[in-house]
Amino acid sequence: MSSIIQLLPDHVANQIAAGEVVQRPASVVKELLENAVDAGATDIKLIIKDAGKALVQVIDNGLGMSVTDARLCFERHATSKIRHAEDLFSLHTKGFRGEALASIAAIAHMEMKTKQDQEELGTHIVIEGSKFVSQDVAVLPKGTSFAVKNLFFNIPARRNFLKSDTVEYRHVIDEFQRVALAHPKIHFTFYHNGSEMFNLPPSTLRQRIVNVFSGKTNEKLVPVQEETEIVSIQGFVSKPEFAKKNRSEQFFFVNDRFIKSGYLHHAVMAAYDGILKDGAQPSYFLYLTVPPNTIDINIHPTKTEIKFDDEHALYAILRASIKHSLGQFNVAPVLDFDRDSNLDTPYHYKDLKGATPTIQVDGNFNPFSEEKPSKQFASYRKPEPTANWESLYVGLKQDTDENGSVTFENEEVTSSLFNDEEVEHAVHKTYQIHKKYIVSSIKSGMVIVDQQRAHQRVLYENFLVNMTVLQASSQQLLFPLNLFFSSTEMELIAELQFSLMNTGFVFEETNKDHIVISGIPVNVTESEVSLVLEQLLSDLQDGIPESSFSQNDTIAKSMAKSLAVKTGTHLTEKEQENLVNGLFACKDPNVSPFQKPTFITMRVEDLDKKFAL
Asked: Is residue 40 a contact partner of residue 116, using CB atoms and an 8 Å limit?
């Protein structure tokens, strides 16, 4: 009987390993950028085509590799950083050049050019699916260049699982931003399809954050700094008024490595407790430095999750340091809510001593004298009695009772509690319950409408009609609105600009970091424009649909969710009737745009059963 268990060939094992390391083009970007940083590069270029599906190239001016190292780096388990198993618990670098390169080379066409500074000639290697095609000597500049082409060319099933170019490009930007923010002293440039997307010169941490996200990032940052024996914290958090709907600007770095931690995120949110609106997310860029032997970074294949030895102390320190910074810069409210800030001591008067007051005494003052006191001393003058006291009682009706005494009353007593006009209006067609549901009677019983979901359905169908018929009406603004966004958000808005114009938005100007809006849809107020666009960007953070109809549908849903009346809003009787009538005039009144029921009905028979004994 033949053996059942067999050893896998190396190229098959590499393809399986690639499933853990390489999930999409952004995974390749992350590995190559981190390798370039570990190589000591001061200038790193990232070049991609078709969102990384066709090409991912990283060029650095780092140490480079010798001929032997250039060949060995593509072997499995090859590394320049690990010698003993204990080294895994004391890591000062990001990746190991060779750990991921073998996996990447197994599923793509790979070309590497590298040269050390002391060598005259470099090495040029070409690999296709783990097979070495050529290895030549070449004249090259100092450093290393990796070019990964045709990702997943030999695994069509994996390639078919890749998302659209828009989605994959956003993931590439996320990885690029994480590495660039962790190393502000390195010059990064990013090119996509021949266009320069980012050019980040060496700078301070604050300036790097501003260069990456542009817009009004600088004015919303509050510095955070704390030094303890357990952890060293520095970085920035945003002011509460600049909070966003999404979590696109939230970054934790531990020993210059980006991580994701729901536990630490909860510590940040606890520091903002009471000063954020519901659903708002603050931006933060926090850099934690801890001893390498107190963390374990190998609990996740992508190394984005870390286990700390003392999480509770870290939580308390982080929360306290952020709360202190918010209070120090007068961002968080103080305990005395009635305090008048105008009474605060100015900084230039803080250390000055107050002058001793002088007292003047009138030695000639006689309290029994009828002469008036000296003019230079203040005196108390008794107020004169009111001369026309009768005017206080003008308008009051005077009656005399049987005993002849005078009685007054403030207002006349009406004949009934409600007049006839009010009684007529007391017959309502609709009723609002707990500012959430609208109850209306029908022939068979009654209908109970969820006001928020119903309004979402009405707005959703109106927006869809406007966008498909291309006859959306706009209201012109007297003063155009200037709205600032990050570079990533500006790209999303640029792709959605045509669809937004069909809803009624008029774009007067579109710049690199802000837009100028001169017209808005008729059912959107000027104060709601920013909220609507923020909600739309939050809903589209996972990518923009490819087809125009899907784009219109997504925009209509997002705007309907933002503009619909919320639970807790009081509606007049006329507004209730218009909402109910508008709902049942829709093509599909039964469900909201998010497939939730908009109303329920109760028949008289059902009510009779409730009262039956």
From this structure: no
According to DSSP, the β-strands at 284-289 and 250-254 are parallel
| CATH 3.30.565.10 domain locations along the chain | 10-200
pLDDT range class, residue 94, cuts 50, 70, 90: low
Q: CATH number of the domain at 10-200, please?
A: 3.30.565.10
Domain 437-599, CATH among 3.30.1370.100, 3.40.50.300, 1.10.357.10, 3.40.50.2000: 3.30.1370.100
- Specify the length of the chain in residues: 613
**pTM (2 d.p.):** 0.72
Tokens of 465: 């009609």
Residue pair 164/138 in contact by the 8 Å Cβ criterion:
no
pLDDT at 49: 93
| CA–CA separation, 598 and 580 (whole Å) | 10
Region 85-89: mean pLDDT is 51
Q: Please state which architecture CATH assigns to domain 208-328.
A: 2-Layer Sandwich (3.30)
Alpha carbons 140 and 146: distance in angstroms, whole number? 13
Can you state the angle between helices 205-213 and 165-182, rounded to 10 degrees? 170
**CB–CB of 532/559 below 8 Å?**
yes
Residue type for position 497 = Q
Residue partners of 449: CB distance under 8 A and separation at least 6? 437, 438, 439, 440, 579, 580, 583, 598, 599
pLDDT in tens, 509-542: 888 778 899 998 888 888 888 888 888 888 777 6
% of the chain with per-residue pLDDT over 90: 27
3-state DSSP call for residue 91? coil
Domain with CATH 3.30.1370.100 in the chain: 437-599
Rounded CA separation 223/217 (Å)? 13
**Comparison of pLDDT for 545 and 116, the residue scoring more:** 116
Distance from C-alpha of 332 to C-alpha of 334, rounded to nearest angstrom: 7
Residues ≥6 apart with Cβ < 8 Å to 72: 78, 98
- What is the 8-class DSSP label of residue 287? E
Is residue 115 a contact partner of residue 69, using CB atoms and an 8 Å limit? no
Q: Yes or no: say if 557 and 563 are a contact pair by the CB < 8 Å rule.
A: no
pLDDT level of residue 552 (50, 70, 90 thresholds): confident
The pLDDT of residue 189: 95
DSSP assigned state of 591 = B
Distance CA 400, CA 306 (A): 89
Instruction: Provide the β-strand partners of residue 355.
Output: none
How far apart CA 580 and CA 576 sit, in angstroms, is 6
Bridge partners of residue 253, in order along the sequence: 258, 287
Contact 78, 98 (CB under 8 A): yes
281 contacts 247 by C-beta, under 8 angstroms: yes
* 175 CB-near residues (< 8 Å, 6+ apart): 26, 27, 29, 30, 33
Q: What mean pLDDT is reported for the chain?
A: 80
HSE-CB for 77 with a 13 A CA cutoff: 5
The neighbour count for residue 278, using CB atoms within 10 Å, is: 4
Do the beta carbons of residue 581 and residue 443 sit within 8 Å? no
Cα atoms in the 13 Å half-sphere on the side-chain side of 25 = 35
**CATH 3.30.230.10 domain span(s) along the chain:** 208-328
Q: In angstroms, how far is CA 331 from the centroid of its own chain?
A: 19
Q: Which two tokens stand for residue 394?
A: 């003008």
